[in-house]
Amino acid sequence: MIRVELPQHLRTLARVGKEVELEVAGPPTLRAVLDVLEERYPMLRGAIRDHVTKQRRPFLRFFACAQDLSLDSPDNPLPDEVASGKEPLLVIGAIAGG
What is the pTM (predicted TM-score) of this model? Predict the structure, then answer.
């Protein structure tokens, strides 16, 4: 079971609490987790990744085990701690301004 923590705006959109648990078949990769997340919560389609390209939205970042996974290949395996459910995958809304 993969645990995913979502930022407030995505929690509101999906009508869920701070954390969701997902069953991911096959190797646990960021792409696999996001595919399951968007399948289970269709209202999140397009909010995390572009509909067509499946690229991460600019103001969202992905973290696991104190590592920024945002620029890594979405097909890289997630850390063992995340795959085992010990640690969550964090989806963070980035802040910009000046």
Answer: 0.92
